[in-house]
Amino acid sequence: MIKEGDKVLLVDPRGKKYLITVRPREFHTDLGVLKLNELIGKEFGDVIRSHKGAEFRVLRPRINDFIEKMRRGPQIVHPKDAALIVAYAGISPGDFIVEAGVGSGALTLFLANVVGPEGRIVSYEIREDFAKLAWENVRWAGFDDRVTIKLKDIYKGIDERDVDHLVLDLPQPERVLEHALEALKPGGFFVAYTPCMNQVMRLYEKLEEFKDRFSRARTIEVLVREQEVKRECMRPKTTMLAHTGYITFVRKL
C-alpha cells in the first residue's frame, strides 16, 4: 500500500514517465492536474486520473527509473556499462565498494542498489559541487543508509581496508594501483572506466610493475543496438548506443 513520502512512477497514456514523491499537493501535467493525496492507500498497478480524465498508471520505480530521472551534472556511467561492471566483477549483496570519480552519482546509485542495505559504498570525489549533487541524488533515491561520499583525492591514498571492489571513473586510474594493493582484499577487483584507449594503455603499462600482484587484465567495450520489430520486417535500428567507455578489470592476487 502506498504511503505519504513514498516514491512512485506515474506513466501517462503516451508512455511519458514522472517520478514523484507522494505528498498532499497538486502535480501539474499537460494532460491535467493530479491530486497526489489520492495516491495514499492505493496499490502499485492502480490508476489515478487527472482533472481532465487522463489515466496515469501507478508503478513502483526501479533503479533504472531513478537513474533516468536523477539530476545530472557531469557525464554519467551509462547503465549498460554499470551492468557489465557488476557482472564481470561479481558484485553482490553485502559487498564493500570504494568508488572514485562519483560525478553525478549514477554509478553510485546502481552499485548501491546491488549491494543492498547490508552493503557499503564509500565514494571519493575531489569537486565539492559534484559531491553535493551526487549526495542529493543518493538521498533522493533512498540509499543514504549505505553510501558515504568523501571530499578527498584518491590519488593520495585510500583510507579503507578489506575492500571487495575498487571502481574508478578517473583520468589516470594507474595512479591508484599501489593504493589498491593496500585496500583490496585478496581476490578483490580493481575496475577502471576510461573513455579513451590511451588511458587504457597507460594503465596496462603501469600494471607491468605489479604483474605478480594482480591477475591478467581484460578490457571490454559495450555496444548496444536495439532492434526494430514490425510484423512485416525485423531489422537493426539505424541508431545505436555505441562507444561510451572502456572497462578494464584486474584482480588482486
UniProtKB/TrEMBL annotation:
PROSITE patterns assigned: SAM_TRM61
CDD domains documented for this protein: AdoMet_MTases
Domain called tRNA (adenine(58)-N(1))-methyltransferase catalytic subunit TRM61 C-terminal: residue spans: 74-232
InterPro entries: SAM-dependent_MTases_sf, TRM61_C, tRNA_MeTrfase_Gcd14
Cross-referenced PANTHER family: TRNA (ADENINE(58)-N(1))-METHYLTRANSFERASE (PTHR12133), TRNA (ADENINE(58)-N(1))-METHYLTRANSFERASE, MITOCHONDRIAL (PTHR12133:SF1)
Native organism: Pyrococcus yayanosii (strain CH1 / JCM 16557)
GO biological process, one term: tRNA methylation
Protein's name in the database: L-isoaspartyl protein carboxyl methyltransferase
Any single GO CC term annotated in Swiss-Prot or TrEMBL for this entry: tRNA (m1A) methyltransferase complex
Annotated residues for binding of S-adenosyl-L-methionine: S104, G105, A106, L107, E125, D153, D169
Annotated GO MF terms: tRNA (adenine(58)-N1)-methyltransferase activity
Superkingdom in the source lineage: Archaea
Keyword GTP-binding in record: no
Record keywords, A-Z: Methyltransferase, S-adenosyl-L-methionine, Transferase, tRNA processing
Pfam families: GCD14, TrmI-like_N
